[in-house]
Amino acid sequence: RLPEHGKGRCCCDSDMELSTLRYLAENHEPKAIVTVIETKGSTPREAGAKMAVSPLGKVTGSIGGGCSEGAVIRDAVRIIGTGRYQIIDIDLTGEVAESDGMVCGGTMKVLVEDGSES
Residue 33 pairs with which residues in a beta bridge? Predict the structure, then answer.
């Protein structure tokens, strides 16, 4: 069963990463795997951060939160079961980012891939 985002006993990024990696290794339910593959400037998470998304949009791990994570979750749900992947650029700069409450000021590139077993 997929733990709910923000719940459980994780207290820091390294605990969250271990929890996410454990979930990915032990869980055989359909899911998408989201990985930060590149960052530039100030970003909430570094390259390598992972997040798993269930078909119902339940999340374990995080790539940084906020509106950008919500958009990635929607794309991740759509990719489950397709055998495909997608690379998404997230811009945390400029007026749009500021109006959405994103204050980091950098950019991230994330890989969204179908993590379902065949």
Answer: 52, 113
Query: Are the C-beta atoms of residues 35 and 49 closer than 8 Å to each other?
Result: yes
Question: Number of helices and strands (H, E) in the chain?
Answer: 3, 5
Query: What pLDDT, in 10s, does the model give residues 22-66?
Result: 777 787 889 999 999 999 998 888 999 999 999 999 998 899 887
Eight-state DSSP code of residue 108: E
Place of tokens 């929890």: 19
**DSSP, res 59:** E
Strand order in the sheet with 59-61: 59-61, 50-53, 32-40, 107-114, 85-91
3-state class of 14 per DSSP? helix
Total residues belonging to the chain: 118
Distance from C-alpha of 108 to C-alpha of 46, rounded to nearest angstrom: 9
Contacts of 63 (CB under 8 A, 6+ apart): 34, 36, 44, 45, 49, 50, 51, 69, 72, 108, 110
